[in-house]
């Protein structure tokens, strides 16, 4: 059994799992922004749109929006430019769209973070499933 456990290399495998499941991380972040209109802190994205005309247009485009909400979605370029950088110790979401600097200046870097609830959903869901599968495959041990 010791030999089986010894084959488990979490230090190198955890970043691989995160890299392989980064689409889920991006979906959770997009859901926060578009549906819940919150940043990684869990707070509503502020400040509101400065133009009431633009605010009305946005409310027609996204039925989840009310006058006090911001979703940072117009053409989808910002959302599509997001990706996940994975290191041995952490991962973070970044965006490469031409508007990214201005968006982050106005709304804060936290818009690219996951909320605590999203982190828990990811960690206890797809990440944990993949981690268990890796451990079972490498060690031949089984989870109940």
Topology, please?
Layout lengths: L1 H5 L3 H11 L1 H15 L15 H10 L15 H5 E5 L4 E5 L4 H8 L8 H24 L5
Antiparallel strand pairs: 1-2
Helix pairs in contact: 2-7, 3-7
Notes on the protein architecture:
The chain has 144 residues and is mainly alpha-helical. The protein has one domain (2-139). It has helices spanning 2-6, 10-20, 22-36, 52-61, 77-81, 100-107, 116-139, and strands at residues 82-86, 91-95. Strands 1-2 form a two-stranded antiparallel sheet. A hairpin with a 4-residue loop joins strand 1 (82-86) and strand 2. Helix 2 packs across helix 7. The mean pLDDT is 91.
Question: H/E element string?
Answer: HHHHHEEHH
Instruction: State Rg.
Output: 19 Å
Strands ordered across the widest β-sheet: 1-2
**DSSP strand count:** 2
Mean pLDDT: 91
Structural class: mainly alpha
How would a textbook summarize the main sheet? 2 strands, antiparallel
Number of separate domains:
1
What separation lies between the terminal Cα atoms? 17 Å
Give the uncertain stretches in residue-range form. none
């Amino acid at each position: 059994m010791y030999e089986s456990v010894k084959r488990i290399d979490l230090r190198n495998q955890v970043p691989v799992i995160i890299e392989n499941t980064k689409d889920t991380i991006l979906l959770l972040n997009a859901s926060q922004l578009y549906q819940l209109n919150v940043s990684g802190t869990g707070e509503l994205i502020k400040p509101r749109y400065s133009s009431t005309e633009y605010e009305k247009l946005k409310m027609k485009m996204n039925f989840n929006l009310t006058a006090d909400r911001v979703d940072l979605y117009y053409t989808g370029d910002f959302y599509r430019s997001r990706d996940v950088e994975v290191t041995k110790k952490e991962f973070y979401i970044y965006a490469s769209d031409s508007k990214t600097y201005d968006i982050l200046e106005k709304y804060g870097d936290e818009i690219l973070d996951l909320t605590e609830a999203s982190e828990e959903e990811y960690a206890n869901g797809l990440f944990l499933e993949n981690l268990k599968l890796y451990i079972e495959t490498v060690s031949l041990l089984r989870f109940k």
